[in-house]
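A note from the maintainers: we've had questions about how concatenated examples are separated. There is no special marker in the raw files; a new sequence line simply starts the next protein. For clarity in this README we add a label.
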Amino acid sequence: MEPFKQYFLGTIKKKYADFDGRATRSEFWYYTLFYAVIAIALATIDQYVLNPILGMPVNIAANGGLLQIIFALALVIPSLAVGIRRLHDIGKSGWWTLVALVPLLGIIVLLYFYVQKSQ
């Protein structure tokens, strides 16, 4: 539970829009892990509880439920910030985040950067 408080909640509370500085590998990957776990839990709740209550058609619900959308919008800035700080930690500019706009190859390049050791 300590990594959740330190890396996920700490990143959201103390470094919400902090694009300066560095993020260690553990900070970045713990944040990513907890983000994914919460997103999956919210997707499950949306799919089996909230969407049937709201009467959403399956084709609309497949694009994301209400809880998923709120969660993603609330955490888009800290997610970008922790990714940019991780790039700073390996000696790269935060502008390298834009390489994700290149289909498939961009994500692979960013993944390679994110797993590198700190400098």
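[label: protein 2]
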Amino acid sequence: MKFIVRAVSALLLLALPSLASASAAPSIAIRFCPASHLYTYPLDSAGKTKSLLLHAFTIINRGPRLLDVQTIRLGLLQDGRTIDSRTLPQAYVKRWGDNASGFQRVLPLFPLEFCGDAMIDPSVTLGGPVLARNQGLLIMKQVFAFDGVRDTLRVHLEGQSSGHPVQSDATIAIRDGFAKTRFVFPLKGTWYVGWGPSFHTDHRWHPPEAFALDIARLGGGGQTYRGDGQHFEDYYAFGADVLAAADGAVVKAVGGRPESPDAIQRPGETARHYADRHNSEEMKLFGGREDGAAGDYVMLDHGNGEYSLYAHLQPDSIRVRVGERVKTGEVLGKLGSSGNSTEPHLHFQVCDRPDPLLCSGIPVSFSDVAILWADGPRALQSGDIVTTH
């Protein structure tokens, strides 16, 4: 039930991201992915505890002399005052530098992990912790949890160049809250949010789908399918109407991509064997800048730089065309299992560009859902069961 492949996570396990503006020293650039701001997401709505992920940042030496990156300090600020701080010591920084060649090979294969060329342009070669001219040190996946408000994340670099100490800073804005658009749930009835924005499922670790939902339907015994689940029609979600979650204009409507029954896990097949078997097909659908992983899909433009994606639709079920305007609740197509889908489900996300892979995710809330077992209104988490009203 995933849009982004397991293989990406496996390739990134050896190292772990950030974001930025201009540096204090003209010869040093610090760039972030996503580039402009970071979103928090509620961990505990009642306790007002939030999570923040700095996905990736790169320190780039633009000067002619070697730059030895020694210590990196990350700070969370509010009104210019540091509230939380973290030091990445020299040994940790060196580990990232030691893995640079591996990441260099991954760059062209999975550009969504690095925001395309925005963070690491073609003139930059990864290296470190000692950087020659136009070399960059990549750091990834820095997780924070806090209560209260933080409005800025700062990266502070300390190092050496030609025997002299060097320091540089860069900051990126932190945003609380959800998309400006008022959304309703894109399916009617009772549904299972198998994957959401929580850290224990894979979405949160990838910029386009950081706040995405993989939505399926449960039946008797808590399963998503009848029988042995070897046919798409066995799945309770299959064929459901997928609805526009808000008024918008159709900017993409891509059809004609197949559903593969071989993508479904076989009875008695272990998770490890299934992952190995499915991996090569995932790579074919997912690599590079192509959007084949999304299968048949629709994207809507809601204004305010907000776009909703409805992925893995049934082939030939899309009812709208590019350029049309649709109303909230209008049927876009049928829930299916096209593209990189391990079983019939809807992948829904909101992001900042009309590109399923090269956008950055935006948190979303829905005006018409109740969460089973929730003790009050709260943000959706992975594993929630929701009912529309």
